[in-house]
Amino acid sequence: MTFPLVQLGTSDLHVTPICLGTMTFGEQVNEADSHAILDHSLARGVNFIDTAEMYSVPPKAETCGHTETIIGNWFAKNPGARQKLVVATKVAGPSRGMPWIRDHMGLTVKDFVTSCEGSLRRLQTDVIDLYQIHWPERHVPAFGGVYYDPQKETSETSIHAQLEALAQLVKAGKVRHVGLSNETPYGVHEFVRLAEQHGLPRVATTQNPYCLINRTYENGLDETCHRLNVSLLAYSPLGFGLLTGKYDASGITGPDAPKGARISGYESVRKQRWGRPESLVAARRYNALAQENGMTPTQMALAFCYTKWQVASTIIGVTSLAQLDADLDAWGTTLSPEVLAAIDAIRWEMRDPAQ
């Protein structure tokens, strides 16, 4: 299968419309199996991988950085692979109850430099193609938060100062391009405005959740990114597994729930947006719609992301070669106008329960 290449924002990065997410590496997937997934993904034509300094997930002090290390070891075993891939990773934002990542508020120049050098060392590479801020330095309602509350503002590092720190990394040749993650319309606009005003690196991307049970990206951020030419990297296209159908009969915590799955196996994940009862209720509706129209739930959920104009590249996370093949084979699936209308009707009724 040959995938078309997509330009990320105004950068010179051209990537496949499917990106291999790696946060399962080092927790659910051991190193040998992770390397097999990387081998197969590259062999099937995917040229884009995404990771983060805080991975594996769910985050723990003892596994922080493990995913990057696994990828770095794979690069060491496969010397030609690095040149074939666009590698994206992320600097963690201020501490969100994870002092082993960041034990203070703000996101200082030192934080950017230290984190970037750590990622380069673990990845065993000289440069990061796309370096993203994992979550905003300022207080925003992310990871299941719904309402912005100015009383909770904790910002200590301005967006301008963050861009200046990223500029240092670009100038030093450690980073090629920069991006955001879990951002808001305001944040994307300010990063672009200040970069253009002061001659600093312009963000190419934002990595935000986007799937059938969380389409909040379409509530204004899509217009912002379209007009400013910032590309969406859509994460959790399968709603943390809810949109695969594997929890439809058992629920996420019942005795028959799939063993080893993230949302059923890790309490910290269940407490977030994907673990809400309403999220599973909505997912069951979409999964039934897929089956009524001759598709697996996975096929329909991925086709929704693969074919939306808003999405530049969809990040898939897998734990096996079979999952990887299923996700890649969904490329080319089309959704009829009738199915798309039915999807919108469900959303009108159920809204975005996993926002």
Features:
single chain, 355 residues, alpha/beta, TIM Barrel, eight-stranded parallel barrel, two-stranded antiparallel sheet, 12 helices, 10 strands, globular, NADP_OxRdtase_dom, Aldo/keto reductase, AKR_Detox_Biosynth, NAD(P)_OxRdtase_dom_sf
**Would you tell me the overall average pLDDT?**
95
Question: H/E element string?
Answer: EEEHEHEHEHEHEHEHHHHEHH
| Quantity of strands, as a count | 10
By CATH, the topology is TIM Barrel
What gap, in angstroms, lies between the N and C termini?
Answer: 33 Å
CATH class: Alpha Beta
The proportion of residues in beta strands is: 5-15%
Number of helices: 12
Derived from helix and strand composition plus strand pairing, the structural class reads: alpha/beta
Tell me the overall shape. globular
Helix fraction?
Answer: 25-40%
Low-confidence stretches: none
Roughly how many Å is the radius of gyration?
Answer: 19 Å
Q: Summarize the biggest pleated sheet.
A: 8 strands, parallel, barrel
Relevant CATH superfamily: NADP-dependent oxidoreductase domain
Strand order of the largest sheet: 3-4-5-6-7-8-9-10
Pfam family, one: Aldo_ket_red
Domain NADP-dependent oxidoreductase: 17-346
Keywords: Oxidoreductase
GO molecular function: oxidoreductase activity
Describe the protein in words.
With 355 residues, the chain is of the alpha/beta class. The protein has helices at residues 31-43, 66-77, 109-123, 159-171, 185-198, 221-228, 262-265, 267-270, 277-292, 297-306, 321-329, 337-350; strands at residues 6-7, 14-15, 18-21, 48-50, 86-91, 128-133, 175-181, 205-209, 231-235, 311-317. It has a single domain, classed as TIM Barrel (Alpha-Beta Barrel). Helices cover 37% and strands 13% of the residues. The strands form two sheets. An eight-stranded parallel β-barrel has the order 3-4-5-6-7-8-9-10, surrounded by five helices. The longest helix is centred in the last third of the chain and has 16 residues, at 277-292.
